[in-house]
Design brief:
GO terms for molecular function: phosphoric diester hydrolase activity. With about 400 residues, the chain is of the alpha/beta class. It contains eleven helices and 23 strands. The two termini are about 20 Å apart.
């Protein structure tokens, strides 16, 4: 077993007392285990803020048990949780270690902390990586492309998240597809918010069939589908039954909780290379082979802001009760959303050209794991595929 649940970890890794001199040294983010929030300098005191790289006084230089803020040389965290001179005695903290967690002070209800190096720690990508070590280019609202069919009322159709059809997306290297499905008399249909007034709507089974056919013809590829799911379980089951050959390629995550994610060669050899996640709560639809996403992944908040102007690069969980740092008996896959409220070509080009920077300097340390899915609008702009290639060149080690 590679990963241990938190309780088991505490039983197997007893408290290791450490003097201040034995405490870690280097420059770190200090992240709450429970919330995933970072300790930030706030005036003369401290606060817990959403992880925001080096933009919010969240980087701390540790030396001899002292936390010196990198933006305020000579100023350290005191035992009273204020900022004071690093030379004073109460700037020295005592550390206790619990596996990969640390205890040194309490703040905002947090008592356990991760110390994540600001400088990325990496090792070379293995020849046969596990699924949780790989990164895949992912199309946000992949169906909203204006090529395969209608996806919204005419005035909304103008704001396409993608401009190429699903078949072209597959050919271009897209391996993750975010699809919204809604309940209609005809079954599960791909629409944005509502299917009312949509001309030429596309059924879910049509796009899944395209993906299955691609996998049948490209036996070394792995594809993941993320369903924003507004249909009932019976409708979803009926829709998936229409897809020819789905059972031959559908991956059901059997054994992952006990053994961790499979390697690429294991998935290829088994032929099970299509993962389908749903964000719908458990109601029996899992027996059709879909996986409840929250059980298997972590995901950051979906929007960086409006379509134009400055953006918010902070990286925090979309789920209040599951921080990006969450782990357990296996490593959750990390879905990194990197898009705005409304897609504009100029903005997407700029944002997608900065994917590597945000992934490595903001989201990777915030999650203590490498993004496995880079979800973007207008994926063909700004070299998103180049960012995927960069992340696929290494394994991240927090």
């Amino acid at each position: 077993m590679r990963y241990l649940p938190a309780v088991a970890a505490l039983l197997l890794l007893p408290l290791v007392p450490a003097t201040a001199q034995a405490a870690p040294s280097g420059t770190f983010y200090v992240t709450g285990v429970r919330t995933g929030l970072n300790v930030a300098q706030s005036g003369t005191g401290l606060a817990l803020h959403r992880p925001k790289g080096n933009e919010d006084h969240q980087q701390w230089r540790l030396s001899d048990g002292r936390f010196e803020n990198t933006d305020s040389p000579g100023q350290c965290i005191t035992r009273q949780l204020t900022m004071g001179s690093c030379s004073q005695a109460d700037a020295v903290h005592e550390f206790r270690q619990f596996g990969d967690q640390w205890e040194f002070f309490g703040l905002g209800g947090e008592t356990r902390w991760y110390l994540t190096p600001v400088q990325n720690q990496t090792s070379p990508m293995p020849q046969d990586p596990r699924l949780d070590q790989m990164t895949f280019l992912t199309a946000h609202n992949a169906y909203a492309n204006g090529v395969d069919g209608g996806f919204a009322p005419p005035f909304v159709n103008l704001a396409k998240n993608q401009t190429r059809g699903i078949v072209q997306q597959l050919s271009d290297g897209v391996r993750g597809f975010m699809l919204d499905i809604h309940q209609t008399p005809d079954g599960a249909v791909l629409c944005h918010n509502s299917c009312t007034l949509v001309s030429k709507p596309v059924a879910l089974n049509v796009d899944v069939q395209r993906i299955v056919d691609f996998l049948k013809n490209n036996r070394g590829e792995i594809v993941t589908v993320f369903l924003e799911d507004y249909v009932d379980a019976n409708t979803l089951r009926a829709e998936l039954r229409k897809v020819r050959g789905l059972g031959d390629v559908l991956y059901r995550a059997e054994g992952v909780q006990q053994n961790g994610w499979p390697t690429r060669s294991q998935m290829v050899d088994s032929g099970k290379r299509l993962i389908i996640f749903t964000d719908h709560g458990k109601d029996g639809r899992e027996d059709s082979g879909v996986l409840y996403q929250k059980d298997w992944t972590v995901e950051n908040h979906w929007s960086m802001g409006s379509g134009l102007g400055s953006s918010d690069w902070s990286c925090y969980s979309r789920w209040d009760d599951k921080p990006l740092t969450a782990t357990g008996s296996f490593q959750p896959l990390f879905v990194m959303n990197h898009f705005r409220d409304v897609p504009f070509s100029s903005t997407a080009t700029t944002d997608n050209s900065k994917l590597v920077n945000r992934a490595q300097q903001f989201c990777q340390p915030a999650a203590r794991k490498k993004p496995n899915f880079l979800a973007v609008d207008l994926y063909h702009l700004g070299d998103a595929q180049g960012a995927v290639s960069t992340l696929n060149s290494y394994v991240y080690r927090p």
